[in-house]
Amino acid sequence: MAAKVRKKSAKSKRPTAHPPEIQAALNLAITCHEQGNLVTAERIYRDILRQKPSCAQALHMLGVVASQTGHFEEASELISKALQLAPDDQNAHFNLAVCLQHLGNLQQAERHYRTTLKLAPKRNDARANLAIVLRDLDRLDEAITLLRKAVEQEPDHPELLNNLATLVKTRGDFEDSIPIYRKALAITPEDAELHFNLAGSLLVTGKLEPGWREYSWRWRSQAFMAANPVRPVPYPMWQGENLAGKRLFIRREQGIGDEIMFATCLPDLMAVARHCTVECDPRLSGLLRRSFPGIHICTANDPLPAKTDIDLALFAGDLPSLFRTNLQHFPTPSPRLMVDPKLAEQIDRQLATLVAKDKPLIGLSWRGGREPRVRATRSIPLSQWAPLLKGFEAHWINLQYGDCQAELEASGLPIVQLPGIDPMADLESFAALVQRLDLVISIDNSTVHLSGAVGTPCWVLLPKAHDWRWFSPLETSPWYDSLRLFRRSSQYASPSSLFCTISQALTRFFPTPVSRKN
């Protein structure tokens, strides 16, 4: 659900001020380039530069070829040389800005986009890309103002409308993004990316029934499918038929947290279907088998059931469209995943050797998100948790997955690490640990889903522009009754105020000394 960088311009004016043989070669190279024959175009550009190293157009267009093939460092060097020779070439400024944006050199990208607009004030491709640069520089209000100006110039441009709506949503103005997405869809009604983006805005604002309809477009979105590969199945896919009495295959999708969240719909499905086979990440198989003994669990590594044993297949993410069409349809208490009791006992013994029973056990997780920008928005660096951890007496237990040892050592904070538990590889042991804690405090990642699923109280620290599943402005989660949601007051508010609120809540949550669960 991201705004898009508009494509690089490979356009160049036909050369007119060169010797005839250079001009003919440039004409041929540009024709090959425009036809997509990059290999031939590159060869001719290089031939031209051997004859005339100061040919700005050949340098520029060779840089565009490098950019189109993902060689952004080389491209930026070539186009920079071209600009030294032709400093007023708007296309060269634009293409250099795109390269710099890909390389993460945002300040220089901003400078060249602004130069492009100075030379060509009506270039909304430059305006759209500059807006994304400003967003990534945490200047979101500027970015939105810039895109509104672009939309004023091209009010029926669906890509500009999509980018504007997405930035408005990124600011946390979810309701305001909806009519902008709808306007774009009125122009391009079959655009799957727009439908999927609109789904997020509808769902987060509690408009679940229309939101799920739009969410079904995710499997037509090229970006979504590229980020969420699934294995093919030989069964007919569900097209809205009645599922009563059917033998169903539920296809896994997205990440561990999504699988856990969608699994809360399985009791509803079991009540109507004749038989259910649920595909899952292998790491979840034990938890699901123990929790849903009436369901056949098939991991992503297992052979698929025979075609004759399945009537219909549907994705796990389609289940809420059947059973969660408004906020009143979420069950209370929420369904639970059952941890392995032997592992729970083992965790108890480990904890007994590491910490005393004089303080509450509080799990901690501070980063998450698969995409870099999502990770940056959700995560709170461990160093910023210091006032909370130092100000409240507890045994703080590390629940952060991934390589975090350097962060732990650098922080100097009193965080307990249980040996032998890898949250990425061993979800059974990790679930048992989470279940034995008195509280979990975490940013939005799979740990909060696991905490909610095993019934451990969990406080989720959300950015203002949070994911759709946390339904603004609720303070609790319909998916999991043990979760409490803490939202930042603004997209760029310091976590310090949030941690002050958390500290006060901890004092109320643990008014007297507590003993551990075991």
Name given to the CATH homologous superfamily of the largest domain: Glycogen Phosphorylase B
CATH domain class of the largest domain: Alpha Beta
Question: What percent strand?
Answer: 5-15%
- CATH-scheme architecture of the largest domain: 3-Layer(aba) Sandwich
Widest beta sheet: strand line-up = 7-6-5-8-9-10
- Global mean pLDDT: 93
Outline type: globular
The oligomeric state is single chain
* Straight-line N-to-C gap: 43 Å
> Low-confidence parts lasting 5 or more residues at pLDDT below 50?
1-7
Count of discrete structural domains: 4
The structure class reads alpha/beta
- Counting DSSP E segments of at least 2 residues, the number of strands comes to 10
Helix count?
A: 24
CATH topology of the largest domain: Rossmann fold
Q: Rg to the nearest angstrom? A: 27 Å
Helix content: 40-55%
Major β-sheet profile? 6 strands, parallel
Biased composition (Basic residues): 1-16
Keywords: TPR repeat
Protein name: Tetratricopeptide repeat protein
Organism: Geothermobacter ehrlichii
Characterize the structure shown.
It contains 24 helices and ten strands. It has helices at 20-34, 38-51, 56-68, 72-85, 90-103, 106-119, 124-136, 140-153, 158-170, 174-187, 192-204, 208-215, 222-227, 256-262, 266-270, 285-291, 319-323, 341-354, 372-378, 386-391, 405-411, 427-435, 446-454, 495-509, and strands at 247-251, 275-280, 296-299, 312-315, 361-365, 395-398, 415-416, 439-443, 458-462, 483-487. It has a six-stranded parallel beta sheet with strand order 7-6-5-8-9-10, with helices on one face. Helix 3 packs antiparallel against helix 4 (72-85) and helix 6 packs antiparallel against helix 7 (124-136). The chain starts with 19 loop residues before the first helix and ends in a 9-residue tail after the last helix. 42% of the residues are buried. Residues 1-7 have low confidence and may be disordered. It comes from Geothermobacter ehrlichii. Residues 1-16 have a biased composition (Basic residues). This is Tetratricopeptide repeat protein. One of its GO terms (molecular function) is identical protein binding.
